[in-house]
Amino acid sequence: MVRLSGNERKTTGSYYTPPRLVSALLDTTLDPLLNEAVDGGVDAADREARLLALTVCDPASGSGGFLVAAARRIARRLAEVRAGEDEPTPAQIQHALHDVVERCIYGVDMNDLAAELAKVSLWLEAMEPGKPLGFLDARIKIGNSLLGTTPALLSNGVPDEAFGVIEGDDKKVSAEVKKRNKVERRGQEAFSFGAPTASVAQLIDRRQKLVQPVASVEDARSRAKAYEAFDHSNEMEQKRLHADAWCAAFVWPLRAGEPEPPTSSVVRQLGDSGESAGFAETVTKIRNLTREYRFFHWHLEFPEVFGDPDAGENGAEGWPGGFSCVLGNPPWERVKLQEQEFFAARNEAVAKAPNAAARTRLIKQLAENDPILHREFLAAKRNAEGQSVSMRLSGRYPFNGRGDVNTYAVFAELFRNLTGPHGRSGIIVPTGIATDATTQYFFKDLVESSTIAALYDFENAAPIFEGVHRSFKFSLLTMAGRFSKSEVASFAFFLHDPAHIDGTKFALSPDEIKLINPNTGTLPIFRTRRDAEITLSIYRRVPVLVDETDRFGGNPWGVSFGEVIHMANDSAKFLDQPGDMTVPLYESKMAHAYNHRWQSVKGNKPDPLDRGSFATPRYWVAADFAREALTRRGWTRDWVLALRKIARASDERTLIPLVLPISGAANSMTCMFTRSDMSDLLSLVAILNSFVADYVMRQKLGGTNVSAYILNQLAVPRPEAFADSFLDPRDYVLELIWTADDMSDFATDCGDEGEPFRWDSDRRAALRVELDAHMFHLYKLSRSDVDYIMDTFPIVKRKDEAAYGEYRTKRLILEAYDAMQLALDTDVPYTSTLNPPPGQGPRHPAREVIV
Predict the structure, then answer these.
(1) How far is 405 from 399, CA to CA, in rounded Å?
(2) Considering the entire predicted model, what is its pTM?
(3) Enclosing H/E stretch for 506
């Protein structure tokens, strides 16, 4: 099989997790439950019973690595309780392990071989002389953990969204079925006179007898037969048919000639009467789709774990119970069909097409050149779309079932939902679960419900996971059950080895997370406890730029962010050469802080001393097109405010504002629009260019995308903070930006009628030093905090030391900070050290006017 880069985990089905990561996850997930069981027991017998009552599940078990590790840990504690000492004998531990595997361990995998391997792993681990292998068929099962329904969803009928159009469907049929389902959901449906089925309580009673330990080989054999009979009984088959029909609605082929679809009425009748309700062709199709998608309904497969919905305080899923501990490292894959991966082993030409457009053309040609492969592709595409629709529209994953679904996100939500009210779940997932826009609703709910217990963030630098990029970030996330609130949660970031957790972790409360990110509740990323302390102190004094929780006063600067011109969607408007009425299409690489002509696209740098030089773009666009794109955003000035979109917390600078001449602004930049007047606008530019604002941004950026939701939650003093300020930043910003002829419109809006300022590197450095020192005072940071913050910019330090033999930028900022502090202490106005003062620096001579 041809294996494309990054495709190994999916094509091989291998999800190996290093034991040290498994152990670290058990520390935060299982150990607290073991401590509660032992500490809460009144005597040894009670402690033993509490330990054996724990249920542990891996919903993507693979060959059972997590289950074996969890069983060992429970068994060790159980052996200690039985022995009454901390060092039980190997025989005592092995006996305890046999008991634990028989009673406590559950697992599910959609791969038949993986599930069998999990059983074998557990059998080998728990083998005890003279005793039969434990009966595991009832607790290690096969199915797609993510595709199933719940009692709550079943009670509400089939949502209308189930009958949308996916690959191969007919829009007209879809509309008709959706309309019919809408009527049925209002209660106008066929009556059912089926006999009552077994209650959940009865099923639980029967299952509990079937999952008890076996004493002999004969017991094991008879238990297997009895379980097989129960699992395929009329009662179980009818309940599964009801649930399978509900799930099948989301993937039903909506085209002429297909059986009657499982609308709400049909699903309810099948639930009431089973096959006797009729709909024979529909039932056959439901079973075919169940085999294809492997629907798995947790409350039916493990009813003794999830409990009777009619006899308890149910959660959102409609069940009162859940597992004591859910843990694992599920797949991290996009649900959407990845065409390169699909064709990698089937058609090399399609897989290696130079771009998406070329690949689409080649796929269309397969209809004639290789119709069998083309049908396989369409079937795989439909399957993937069906899974995606089920996850996004079924209501099963209200927080993470959105957008281009990734399995890690919906698995995280599943782990949480499968956890009992007093249990814990632990999952290994990309750190984006806590920082990304698509998962913000899930993480915010964790924070607001105080059910996040720990998150330990790793860089794969070692690497810990082979075949995964070394800069990739993942986390061990531990969540508490809905009745187990965590007053504070434990965090650690930028780890390279689990052994470093204890030495670097620190606590944050939900309120502190919401203080820093009030809009999204997403997690700040702190390298050290000191970073957390400084950042929290800033947010206690300084508001966020846009507080969405405050409808009236939450946006004092009147800012919004957005894209203007898209490099792909608007490419037809791009010109290779400039014309009389064209402007450059600016890309973020062309500009830097206070320097709109940092470099041309091809890398050559304009001469900053030449007032007429400019950065050469890749493309130009019509000036009217650029102005129209900006006007649609409410921006009417003939210059542009933007920020670099792609950045990292480890770059030389992370928050990089750009002030550009009128231009087409490409989507590699996030444009900023504001209703502020020029005076406030210049102050805002000074804030965003400062080291302190950059430092705060670094605590928020988990990936490489400076998104609007991150910018909105940046700590930024209000405009009135400058009213009593001892330094006016406007003259500084004007002199730093107004250095070339193409920024004349900006200068005019600032009220400046002179020529551009000359580029003087030493003077510019001095201007920026005073601005930075002033911003540190504006944020009310102590000198020791300033000292520390400047050391968090190692590339700036390294460049200074190479050029000057010292960290000159830091020294000069601290000197300016001290001078400003002295002025504050002595109530003497601060005087700039620059001569001439800011805004009065040397300018270019006026150009001669030729008549």
Answers:
(1) 11
(2) 0.86
(3) strand 506-508
